[in-house]
Every structure is written in C-alpha cells, then in structure tokens.
Design brief:
The complex is a heterodimer of chains A (114) and B (116). With 114 residues, chain A is an all-beta fold. Chain A is 0% helix and 61% strand. In chain A, the strands form two sheets. In chain A, strands 2, 4, 5, 9, 10 and 11 form a six-stranded mixed β-sheet that branches. Chain A has a five-stranded antiparallel β-sheet with strand order 1-3-8-7-6, with no helix packed on it. Chains A and B meet through strand 4, strand 5, strand 9 and strand 10 of A and strand 5, strand 9 and strand 10 of B.
Chain lengths: 114, 116
C-alpha cells in the first residue's frame, strides 16, 4: 500500500509542550502533505513539503522530510488546547499514467491537556 | 469564496437500501475526491473525478459509484447498503487533480451515514 502511516496512534501532552508526530510511506513521492481533523469533521490542510525539500515551517508547525528513509515528521511547538485533533499525513505517490494520488493513513490523535 | 459543501450532513438508512450523497466543490475547482472514514480503517480513498471523468479509483466494490457533472458538482452512490458502510463520507476539491503540481485538497464537513 502507498498509504502514509502515522506514529504514534495517540499522543497526550500538557499545554505548552511540543508534540511530534511521525509518518512513514513506501514509495517515491512528489510531495507530502499534513492535514488536521477536529472530531468527526472535515480535514484542514496544514502544510505541504515537496520531495526536494528537507524542512518547512509554518507558524508553530515544522515539517521535515527524509526521502531516503521515506519518512516525515510534524512538530507542533508550544501546543495549545485548541491543537487537540487528529493529524494525518498524505504522501502524493505515483499512481500511474503520469499522475499522483494522495493517500491518507489512520492519523495520530493528539490530546493537549490544559 | 464558499467552501466545499456536502448534503445531507446526516443520513440513516437500512440494509439493502441505496443512498446518494452530494458534494459541491469550491467555485472554480474541477477535481473532486471522495473518501470513506471509519474508526477501524481510517481514511480510505474511494474515487476522484476531474472534468467529469473518473481519474482514479480506490479498492472498493462496485456498489460504490460516482459521477461528476459539468458544473463540477459530484455525487456518489452506494447501492445495497451493508452495515459496514456506516461511516463518515468526505468530499474534497482542488483546482487540479490531487497530487499534481502540489495541489492541496479542501475538504467538506462530511456526510455521516448510519446503516441499520
């Protein structure tokens, strides 16, 4: 499967701490995206990192990509209670005929305790 | 700009019935993807439509089908419903097909389907 796999499945931290989530995938990718989902609702795009990039920042988010290890990590610094959500990585893997397809894993459920 | 809208938001059906879900993408977006989300399987790709043509299809039985209209609105249909079809069905739109030229997807709120 080309699906991204997030680790850990669940993470519980205190407000103000940093949260790190990891993602592994199996095939070569064009880019990798991270999304967030609040309980039972639609996903919201957070950040996209291209396959030729190693690190990217957006506000309190830092994403790294290691294509040699086929892995990525999402770091949320100085977490807030409002960051409580599920986080998904979505590698854009080659799906044939010159196109790429986003695939999602089961996500990491982050709980930030006030 | 209005976001992705999905109707209905909640639906209860019984086994054996069929259901049609609707998705209106963001204005100007031509690509619509559908996903099924369950606690056990996570977020699974159903299919993607671009300019009224199915571009990609996930590993789901033929009971799951979809289409896209000329205004980019999309519908998905599930026939002969089974208990295991209970899920949150998410629709996402993008300007270009997903994965191409670093396109991001914009998700709707989902339709929660319960099959009894």
């Amino acid at each position: 499967s080309q699906q991204g796999e997030e680790d850990p499945q669940a993470l519980s931290i205190q407000e103000g701490e940093n949260a790190t989530m990891n993602c592994s995938y199996k095939t070569s990718i064009n880019n990798l995206q991270w999304y967030r989902q609040n309980s039972g609702r639609g996903l919201v795009h957070l950040i996209l990192i291209r396959s030729n990039e190693r690190e990217k920042h957006s506000g309190r988010l830092r994403v790294t990509l290691d294509t040699s290890k086929k892995s990525s990590s999402l770091l949320i610094t100085a977490s807030r209670a409002a960051d409580t959500a599920s986080y998904f990585c979505a590698p854009a893997a080659y799906s044939g005929a010159g196109s790429y397809q986003l695939t999602f894993g089961k996500g990491t459920k982050l709980s930030v305790i006030p | 700009k209005a976001g992705v809208t999905q109707t209905p938001r909640y639906l209860i059906k019984t086994r054996g019935q069929q259901v049609t879900l609707s998705c209106s993408p963001i204005s100007g977006h031509r690509s619509v993807s559908w996903y099924q989300q369950t606690p056990g399987q996570g977020l699974q790709f159903l299919f993607e439509y671009f300019s009224e043509t199915q571009r990609n299809k996930g590993n789901f039985p033929g009971r799951f089908s979809g289409r896209q209209f000329s205004n980019s609105r999309s519908e998905m249909n599930v026939s002969t419903l089974e208990l295991g079809d209970s899920a949150l069905y998410l629709c996402a739109s993008s300007l270009q097909p997903s994965g191409v030229r670093q396109e991001t997807q914009y998700f709707g709120p989902g339709t929660r389907l319960l099959v009894l």
